[in-house]
Amino acid sequence: MPVLGIGFFMRLSRVLAITHDIAATSHALDGLGELLDPNLVKSAFETAGVATLRKRRLPLESMIWCVIGMALFRRMSAWDVVNQMDIMLPGQRPLVAPSAVVQGRQRLGSQAVREVFALTQQRWHASANHPTWMGLRLLSVDGVVWRTPDTQENREHYGSSTNQHGDTGFPQVRMVCQMELTSHLLVSSSFAGYHSNEMKLAEQLVVTTPDHSLTLFDRGFYSLGLLHHWQQAGTQRHWLIPLRKGARHEVIHRLGRQDAIVSLPTSPQARKQWPGLPETLQARLLSKTVKGKVCQILTSMTDPLRFPPDEIVDLYSQRWEIELGYREMKQSMLDSRYTLRSKTPEMIEQELWGVLLGYNLLRYQMLEMSRHCPGIYPCEMSFTACTWAILGLLNGLSLRHPGNIPKYLAELHASAMHYVLPHRREDRCYPRAVRPKPSKYQSRNKKAMSELAVAWLLAPAPPSSKSMD
């Protein structure tokens, strides 16, 4: 019997390694590549400076899907997500240890997920061919708050809201996002501690704002320095915002009964904070009476021939689309579980970028579905129903057969008309109110309690024991 030398075992090791790689390429990650381009993920990893130095059952390509899966499958733990999606490489054991998932997330970090989000949003927006208004893409900027687990690291890093009794129960993250309104695709995001200024966070979004766009701001972002900087940072970057109550302005000339070019004075503090801000800022002020209330809208679109006044005022109602997007993320996608999972600030940031990336992934598939529905915008499709259908692909047996993914996606896109929502009713309005908690006991409000106290004081005194004798 011949003696086997070292060279034989080295060749055998190479053959086994090649076999391992071939088995890995036919894995579920190839099927998931139909949803997230592996080359784009690789480029993001190179930009973030992370790489898998040795063979692991959970390489970084698997961990990016783990972070996305944590957002899409909110009821599952991170370990369950890895095993359910079957994104681990083949090994001696069918499952990986929970500690391997934790270590994999730590190797991945938050910067890599942020780079994947940035590269995917650029590609998806470029291929989306968004509809425009007067040649301008419609965007919106608004803030949102996320709640984190109450750990010492999170509380020291993010802080929390306070009242007369001290800090509240959970540390919170303040986030500002920019969203394209017809597709609900996120353009960019910035976040920091709870006590950070939303103006400063919004300033970071100027870099990613596309040219020839119109950004709708909430009234809380009224800052002449921010608006001037936003407009001057590119070509045709317009803004639209309600006029602050009591804001000083001087009418330069009128374009109509409720349409005028006005001059807004800037404060010395604002000019010091925003270099290049002039002493006065010219803008267009439009007014319209809606249900007996006068609405005043301020905008940088001063050309009356190109931008009709009636359409501008009505256009501001589209700002509510970003509020609907936040509701889709928090209530539908995260199943109304408002507290994030991670215990450290680094993993909190990774998880948040995973939430934004997962939301964009769903929204881009809805955009692809809307192409099969002429005249329908992606925002007019049911996010909940489409999410269930898309997650059925990720949670089904098709992941074990990657070749089935394109077929199932084609079938999903072909059935897009089934997910179109009915037209929104313009007269539908729900005023803000506090709903009482259901109880078998009769409720007593302050008015009823005061009436009861007055009745008790005016009631005749009961007879004493002496009078009874």
From TrEMBL:
Name of the protein described by the UniProt record: Transposase InsG for insertion sequence element IS4
What positions does the domain Transposase IS4 N-terminal occupy?
28-118
| Pfam families documented for this protein | DDE_Tnp_1, Nterm_IS4
Query: A single GO molecular function, which one?
Result: transposase activity
Q: Output one GO BP term.
A: DNA transposition
Species the sequence originates in: Azotobacter chroococcum NCIMB 8003
Residue ranges of the Transposase IS4-like domain? Answer: 135-361
